[in-house]
């Protein structure tokens, strides 16, 4: 609740840091503002330094008696995903109203569009990750949310044999976000994890000799 309050009260006075290409055709008004190094920020009582996407320190701006803070830097500090939609000139904070399917840009040797492999329990998901190789093995793939989203909603099914160890990991920080058991009897299991600020995800499972792992890519999504 505290995060939501902070963001909602700041939005009116925040500026999005973006490349010059973002501003093509935008309605801009030139003003005279000042970088204000005297302003210090604290979050939950702890001093913090706003930084841009490259890790460089950024300063607040003061204009006409009002101080403006860089929205991306503040969102990173309070743990809220932020992105910019150039088509609608919209800054998007927190969860997106509509999910973005992980199918976009997905690459893996077990990626398939074959209806024989994308169909699970009578429904064709059109695109899927389906590892039906032989032998006891680690089944894995990468996802690249690039810090743009708040949550990952992933669907997964165990086929033939239960999957005792299914995990989602922040690959940059080498931190497990969740570890699950996926049973055949679960059907298509939905797993939701917080991915705020996460750039790369490593998804892996221990699959038994007679088992397979099915992940529908069109109904698994970022928010």
Describe this structure in words.
This is Copper amine oxidase-like N-terminal domain-containing protein. Residues 58-103 form the Copper amine oxidase-like N-terminal domain. There is one protein chain. This protein folds into 2 domains: 2-93, no CATH class; 100-222, Jelly Rolls, CATH 2.60.120.260. It is mainly β and 223 residues long. It is built from 3 helices and 21 strands. It has helices at 2-10, 71-78, 115-118, and strands spanning 14-15, 34-35, 41-43, 46-48, 61-63, 66-70, 82-85, 90-93, 100-101, 111-112, 119-120, 123-124, 128-131, 137-143, 151-159, 163-170, 175-182, 189-194, 201-207, 212-216, 221-222. The protein is 9% helix and 40% strand. The longest helix has 9 residues, at 2-10. The relative contact order is 0.17. The strands form 6 sheets. Strands 9, 10, 13, 15, 18, 20 and 21 form a 7-stranded antiparallel sheet that branches. It has a 4-stranded mixed sheet with strand order 1-6-5-2. It has a 4-stranded antiparallel sheet with strand order 14-19-16-17, with no helix packed on it.
């Amino acid at each position: 609740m505290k995060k939501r309050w902070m963001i909602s009260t700041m939005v009116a006075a925040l500026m999005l840091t973006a490349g010059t290409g973002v501003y093509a055709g935008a309605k801009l008004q030139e003003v005279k503002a000042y970088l204000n190094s005297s302003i210090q920020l604290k979050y939950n009582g702890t001093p913090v330094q706003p930084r841009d996407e490259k890790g460089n320190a950024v300063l607040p701006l003061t204009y006409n008696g009002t101080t403006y803070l860089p929205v991306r830097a503040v969102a990173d500090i309070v743990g809220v995903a932020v992105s910019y939609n150039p088509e609608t000139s919209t800054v998007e904070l927190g969860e997106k109203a509509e999910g973005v399917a992980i199918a976009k840009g997905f690459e893996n040797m077990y990626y398939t569009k074959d209806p024989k492999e994308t169909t699970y329990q009578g429904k064709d998901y059109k695109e899927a990750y389906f590892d039906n190789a032989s032998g006891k093995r680690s089944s894995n793939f990468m996802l690249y949310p690039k810090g743009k989203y708040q949550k990952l909603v992933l669907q997964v099914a165990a086929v033939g044999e239960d999957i005792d160890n299914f995990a989602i990991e922040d690959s940059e920080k080498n931190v497990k976000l969740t570890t699950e058991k996926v049973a055949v009897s679960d059907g298509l299991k939905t797993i939701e994890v917080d991915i705020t600020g996460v750039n790369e995800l490593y998804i892996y499972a221990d699959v038994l000799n007679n088992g397979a792992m099915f992940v529908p890519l069109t109904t698994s999504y970022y928010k």
